[in-house]
Amino acid sequence: MTARTCNLAILGGGLAGALIALAMARHRPDLRVLLIERGNTLGGEHVWSFFESDLNAEGRALVEPLVAARWPGYDIHFPAFSRRLSTPYASVTSDRLDSAVRAALPAEAVLTGADVHHATPVSVTLADGTEIAADAVIDARGARALPHMAGGWQKFAGQMLRLSAPHGLDRPVVMDARVEQVDGYRFVYALPFSPTEVFVEDTYYADSPVLDLPVLHARIADYARQRGWQVAAVDYQETGVLPVIAAGDFEAFWAATGEPEMARAGTRAALVHPLTSYSLPDAVRFAHHLTTLDNLSGNSLGRASHAWAANHWRGGRYYRMLTRMLFAAAPPGARWRVLERFYRLPEPLVERFYAGRSTLADRARLLIGRPPVPVGAALASLSGGGRALADLGADFGITREPSR
């Protein structure tokens, strides 16, 4: 058994934990940080993307070392409507995240291949018996389920395709819904990392979290064939099943997902956009917020993270309402109509929506006009009726938004 000490122990070297470590190295170099990750590398195997308008200047500076590619805009496609938008778009890869964190922190501050056996707000015990004493511990290990929450799922399989000839894309296709609509709202996402490398993701807004990987991989291959792309190799692949939150009881969720006094970050604190499942903007904002705190003791950090997450939950009420409309009012095969209508709106409104900063005027604009789903079904979804929403956790699902 060995012992270590630090000011801040971060559990989980994924996006949320890594960004906290980077923010502390940048703004609080006086603190001894220890980043603990069970895998052999940080970030796992993922591509995270964001719109430049999601972040302020401070946030963009923090993320800059992680960016593997950026583009001056992006395209979207629907059966009878396409649009080119000018909001700059960027992607972060796990390889860049791993190298950036290791470059910013001392070697002894990054502990990989380490399983956490037990943790408290001020201590960590690893599976090999190592004891770590910390002024504070923050849990950023993600969450496979969100107990006491309900909604649907955004699930996907992605592959980095190496082509034998250029693909012809000059910017990302963030949403191509011209594909067959199966298993909910389906679209393909394509990121051109080089003239002959394109990351293609088959994505679904579905009622079930089940992934049939052979089927999804076959659909990616079919999409490539339809585009005339000749695939020389698949260099990388990933999968994901993300919660799309329609309703829930935040305090019950917090109590059910760990020690109530433990500080949390990322999905473990429900710091995601309720409808898009995007987590990078919230991870960046929270990481920066932590660097401004005067008191980083265990219980104080726990209270601060709870307060931040609870405020985020309250701020997401409108987006959870939209999620209920999407899943409970729109038939699975017609959900694309909701997104098509959304993308016909002014570009600044689209930017603010993805950033989670929709104005009152934006919110009204999203709801007025002829709805793309039956009015009766939409009203039923808002009052708690309509089709049942899936349980996102291990305990029970809530199909109405509580008045908290």
SSE string, helix = H, strand = E?
EHEEHEEEEHEEEEEEEEHEHEHHHHHHHE
What's the gyration radius in Å? 21 Å
* Secondary structure: helix percent: 25-40%
CATH 4th-level superfamily of the largest domain? FAD/NAD(P)-binding domain
Number of domains: 3
**Shape, principal axes of CA atoms:** globular
Features:
single chain, alpha/beta, FAD/NAD(P)-binding domain, Alpha-Beta Plaits, 3 domains, eight-stranded mixed β-sheet, 12 helices, globular
Layout of strands and helices, then pairs:
Elements: E1 3-11, H1 15-27, E2 33-37, E3 47-51, H2 57-63, E4 67-71, E5 74-78, E6 81-85, E7 89-93, H3 94-104, E8 110-112, E9 116-120, E10 123-126, E11 131-139, E12 149-163, E13 173-176, E14 185-194, E15 197-206, H4 213-226, E16 231-248, H5 250-256, E17 263-264, H6 280-291, H7 298-315, H8 317-329, H9 335-342, H10 347-354, H11 360-367, H12 375-382, E18 390-391
Parallel strand pairs: 1-2, 1-11, 2-8, 5-13, 11-17
Antiparallel strand pairs: 3-7, 4-7, 5-6, 9-10, 10-11, 12-15, 12-16, 12-18, 13-14, 14-15
Helix pairs in contact: 1-3, 1-6, 2-6, 8-12
